[in-house]
Amino acid sequence: MKWTVLTLALGLASSTAFAADESGQINFYGTVYAGGTCPIEVVNPGGSVIPRVTLGNFTTKYFSKVGVSTPEVSFALRVTPDTTCIIPPNSKASITFTPLHGSVGTDLYAIRQGGASGLGMSIKDELRAKITPGTASKDYDLYDNRPTDLRFYAAYESYQASVGDGLAEAEVSFVVSLP
């Protein structure tokens, strides 16, 4: 059984304002989706629903060589059983993340073109093992009578020796599958 869910926006957006006539940018994001048998929410692990995962602001100097990663940011996909979402006892789920902007390096999710360059994003499972784009994660145990938070970690990672400045946003869709 597969549940297709929504697009997960990971990244950052910033705007700088000064006195005088300066301009900035506001980015508005949202998703409209049909849901499914088991709608999945993106949450702070053990906490509330979040509209996006923010990875932070970094200077280009931070990425001094290939393979430099930013601190990991945790997020979770919450599966909540109810009358329309029946989770059999002892069920497991795996998650496949698919990058909407392709992949870069050997195992990174590409960020949107036109922004920062030489930079990708990694997604790791709860054991902090990288999840290659388009590949199923390890199996997660599901509760049949209460919400389950499937924990993941995301971070920026340089895949080139030089990283260029700009907006760093990655959009990733995901599918939660029962084996």
TrEMBL record:
Residues 26-177 form the Fimbrial-type adhesion domain. It is found in: Fimbrium. It holds the Pfam family Fimbrial. One of its GO terms (cellular component) is pilus. GO terms for biological process: cell adhesion involved in single-species biofilm formation. Keywords: Fimbrium, Signal. Residues 1-19 form the signal peptide. Belongs to the fimbrial protein family. This is Fimbrial protein.
